[in-house]
Design a protein that fits this description.
By secondary structure, this protein is mainly α. The chain is 78% helix and 0% strand. The two termini are 24 Å apart.
């Protein structure tokens, strides 16, 4: 029997509704989350000073929880910048261009390369790493620039980012919010990510090929930017080839180590991050020689700028949702919770289970809907803490399937907001391929919606 719901429970629900509404209206939710933390704190502690401190403490707690994730993204982006500047990425990708002999082969080759690279480098840096080399090769065999953008977008920002099996930033956020181990969410997401990926990409390719046959979609040459002077040659051709083999080999060794030693979550992230730092330092010192010390710092700064720009809006939002579970005691203290409470979200879940007969079908549809709504802000990450909390709520009603529901909400949020439907999230791929982000979003819309519908139905049977 759960604790009787108090005012802070209803305030928490009210702010969740407000957050969902703002996301649906495509407005920023950071301020609302900060206000929510303050109001819950002042109701719980009945102290103005503790409440003001609570807002700051909630940020500290959220940053502490997210810091490994933020750091790994920063480091990976720094490394991707080194690979681009030295030209190693061009050498790494070039052999695959020989496989691109037809538009169909080009579409699937680009997609698979983008997916694999995005697991290690994340999609936005991955687009920059691969686009300049793969786009001309695809255009030469007749694949339109829009088709190239779709392949990079659906496989990178869709399949790779929604699973995020190597860096594990997404599953950590949702797992923490749902009170689950990261490994459980990753395992539960595998059949859903496969379903979503296959249905969406096959549907997208079908429509792409249909319009190419009709002649309504034709390849267009990209606009080549004017050179800004000669670019310094940092490595010889032989050195580039050597490093082009070594870099992916080291990451493959990491993957093998993860499997052999069952490394997940923070351990897996640390292994990838440490490897990336070593590669970054070696490449920078080797390429820039006497300026290597300064350039190492410069690359790290660029990476940190990117990482905190991406996760800056996520911190206040995560702070609010951490307050609903384990973070409450750390931020405001155990005494601030009502007597007998197991946490705000747990209490609400118990009450929901006793008041409304929630079925697994209703739970799956609701989580998908909430995930899609949270993705409308164009981030994909800002709302996945919410879907984790919602999945935890439903667990009390259906008594199983929390990990599957959490993974389903994560997939919906990232496919919508991570860069496949919201136009302003599509800019990296659209810019590389010289296509309109709005046209790319329109092309992705039907395939992604069909994929979400099928994946939601599959989740109903798994729960």
């Amino acid at each position: 029997m759960g604790v009787e719901l108090a005012l802070i429970h209803w305030i928490y629900v009210l702010f969740i509704g407000g957050i969902i509404l703002l996301m649906a209206l495509r407005r920023d939710t950071s301020l609302l989350c900060i206000v929510g933390v303050f109001i819950i704190a002042i109701i719980s502690t009945e102290s103005l000073t503790n409440s003001v401190s609570g807002v700051f403490n909630s940020f500290i707690y959220a940053i502490g929880e997210l810091l490994p994730t933020i750091l790994i993204i920063c480091i990976i982006v720094s490394l991707s910048k080194v690979l681009t500047d030295t030209g190693i990425n061009d050498v790494m990708v070039y052999p695959f261009t020989k496989m691109m002999k037809t538009p169909a082969l080009s579409f699937w080759t680009i997609g698979i390369i983008m997916m694999v690279s995005s697991w290690f480098f994340w999609p936005s840096p991955g687009v920059a790493l691969l686009g300049a080399v793969l786009l001309p090769a695809a255009l030469r065999v007749g694949l339109p620039g829009l088709g190239v953008a779709m392949a990079m977008n659906l496989f990178g920002h869709g399949i790779a980012l929604s699973g995020d099996y190597v860096i594990q930033a997404a599953p950590k956020l949702t797992a923490d919010a749902a009170g689950l181990p990261v490994g459980d969410v990753i395992e539960a997401s595998i059949p859903l990510v496969i379903t979503m990926g296959l249905v969406t990409t096959i549907t997208a390719f079908y429509f792409l090929r249909r319009d190419m046959k009709r002649g309504t979609l034709k390849p267009e040459l990209p606009v080549v930017p004017e050179a800004e002077g000669e670019k310094a040659v940092l490595l010889s051709s032989r050195q580039k080839k050597w490093f082009a083999v070594l870099v992916p080999l080291l990451f493959l060794v990491d993957v093998a180590a993860m499997a052999a030693f069952d490394l997940q979550g923070g351990d897996a992230t640390s292994l990838i991050g440490g490897t990336a730092i070593v590669i970054l330092i070696v490449l920078t010192l080797f390429a820039h020689k006497s300026k290597g010390l300064e350039e190492t710092t410069s690359y790290l700064i660029k990476g940190f700028q990117f990482g905190f720009k991406v996760f800056g809006p996520v911190i206040p939002i995560a702070a609010f949702f951490y307050l609903g579970d384990a973070g409450f005691a750390a931020i405001l203290g155990d005494q601030a919770l009502p007597k007998g409470s197991a946490g705000i979200v747990n209490d609400l879940g118990t009450a929901l289970a006793g008041a409304i007969p929630i079925t697994k079908e209703i739970a799956a549809i609701t989580v998908t809907g909430v995930g899609a709504i949270t993705g409308l802000d164009g981030s994909g990450f800002s709302g996945i803490s919410l879907v984790g909390s919602v999945a935890q709520l439903f667990e009390h009603s259906i008594e199983s399937g929390a990990a599957t529901l959490t993974a389903l909400g994560q997939i919906a949020a990232i496919w919508v907001g991570g860069g496949t439907l919201v136009p302003w999230a599509l800019i990296p791929a659209a810019a590389i391929c010289n296509v309109s982000p709005f046209e790319l979003a329109r092309r992705n819309l039907v395939p992604v919606l069909i994929g979400l519908a099928v994946t939601t139905i599959v989740a109903m049977f798994i729960i």
